[in-house]
Amino acid sequence: MSIYVVMEPPPRRGSDAVEVYVRDGFHWLGFLLPLVWLLWNRLWLETAVLLALMLGLGALAETSGSAEMVVGGLTVLLSIYVGLEGSALRVWALRRRGYREWGVVDAENRADAEVRHLAARSDEAPDAQRPLPPIREGSAPAQAAGNEPELGLFGYPGRT
After folding, report:
1. b (16+ CB within 10 A) / e for 46-85
2. What is the per-residue DSSP string for 12-39?
């Protein structure tokens, strides 16, 4: 099973904007061809930063002949970073565009994630037929603040 981060479009976008489902996990194409993967996912700022880093590492390798192995290793580390944290980079880019996080969904594939998301969303809507349970004094909250689940290296909050 995979974990999908559900990003809801900003309200000003109109009715044609849809939710974006970002799969959390390792992206092989992001590891093998990081610049192509970043461009494919329309991560323009991240592509520019990675390109500048790779060109800088290439210039460093050209000027110092003995550091070729180190520069090659750093280039591989950049590729590993894009493979591992590509999902977080996509979430950050969507946040910059005004999308907001609804939460996470555990599903087999994207279609299953959509179904689970819509089912959970329908459960969130208040139901006039069903009364709310009474609040008992002295009961602890279900989850204390600061203990939310997080995904990825830098973490982004999710729902359980």
Report:
1. bbeebeeebeebeeebeeeeeeeeebeebbeeebebbbbb
2. GG-TT---EEEEES--HHHHHSHHHHHH
How far apart (Å, rounded) are the C-alpha atoms in residues 34 and 114? Answer: 27
Q: Is 136 left (phi over 0), alpha (psi -120 to 50) or beta?
A: beta
DSSP 147: -
Among candidates 42, 50, 60, which has minimal Cα distance to 96? Answer: 42
How far is the C-alpha of 79 from the C-alpha of 140, rounded, in Å? 45
Beta-carbon contacts of residue 1 (< 8 Å; ≥ 6 apart): 106, 107, 108
Please list, in sequence order, all residues whose beta carbon lies within 8 angstroms of the beta carbon of residue 43, skipping any fewer than 6 positions away. 89, 90, 93
Q: How confident is the model at residue 155, as a pLDDT?
A: 61
CB 81 within 8 A of CB 89: no
Asked if residue 22 lies in contact with residue 107, where contact means CB atoms within 8 angstroms, the answer is no
Is the entire prediction scored with pTM above 0.90?
Answer: no
Tens of pLDDT, residue by residue over 115-151, are: 898 888 877 655 555 565 666 666 555 544 455 555 5
